[in-house]
Amino acid sequence: MKKILIVFALLITLLLLNSTFATEVDESIYFDAKSSSLGFTFVTLDSEGETYFFNPATLSLKKFSYFSLTFDNLTDNPNLKLSYFYPSTTIYSITADLILDKNTKEYSLKNIRGAIAFPLTSYIYLGTSAMYLEEENLIKGDIGLMIKIGDFLRTGIVGEGFTIEKISDQVYKITLALRYNIGLSFSLFNNSTNIYLDLIDVENFSNTKDWSLIRFGIEQKLGNILVIRIGSKGDITNLANYTFGLGINLNRFSLSISAFSENIENSDTSLENIKLKYKLTGTLRF
């Protein structure tokens, strides 16, 4: 436990010393291709890239060290998300955005974030993530818990959006999680079919019974190489909420691609008004 606290303290220090961080942006930017093809689920998902930030306890599912890279067309400037995962008794990860400014033609590293996870028991795992928001002068992160029940069932809960804000040299303000998310996943038929179900903002759902807060994803493996994925990030009667994707696994290398619509502010969600976005995530296992 002492080692875990030391590593996390070093991570926080790194975040505070870096001066190039950006402020918050559209949350969908921080999901990798696998997650975004599965309805942006994350609570119990063994993601391939930066999605781990939303439930860092899922880092406990990592079995090998690997490097991942995600590219998408969500922003005007080309943006590569670089992640590194190191599983041990305690699992570590770190991610940064490599962004090309089209005006200056210069690259910069921004939005550095990281997480750690460790077992509480042989089937209960705890994780925490952190990211520094320079303009708001605070650290923001999530705390997640995941429970593995055999090889076929996982459940989890995430406290999303806790903050640590520096008020003065010796005074810090800590704010608890803004909302809580829960999730469940099933692995069927010898892990060839995986089903993911997340409920975003439990308190809001209990008050409003808003079914658009439920996300789901279904993953079907076709042999050892190809994977097809489909999901929904909200109201299943709205075509704009559906997501799709493919995965290819080749020994130490894997590639995932997803397609989904950007968030639509008006009520017109007819097919001709849906603008498709995509993500590509590649991983290389060491």
Summarize the structure.
With 286 residues, the chain is mainly beta.
Question: What is this structure's SSE topology?
Answer:
Layout: H1 2-17, H2 33-37, E1 66-72, E2 79-86, E3 91-101, E4 106-119, E5 124-133, E6 138-149, E7 153-168, E8 171-175, E9 179-188, E10 193-199, H3 202-208, E11 214-222, E12 226-232, E13 242-250, E14 253-261, E15 276-285
Antiparallel strand pairs: 1-2, 1-15, 2-3, 3-4, 4-5, 5-6, 6-7, 7-8, 7-9, 9-10, 10-11, 11-12, 12-13, 13-14, 14-15
Report the average pLDDT across residues: 86
What string gives the helices and strands in order?
HHEEEEEEEEEEHEEEEE
Distance between the termini: 27 Å
Secondary structure tally: strands: 15
How helical, in percent, are the residues?
under 10%
Largest β sheet strand count, sense and barrel closure: 14 strands, antiparallel, barrel
CATH architecture assignment name: Beta Barrel
CATH class call: Mainly Beta
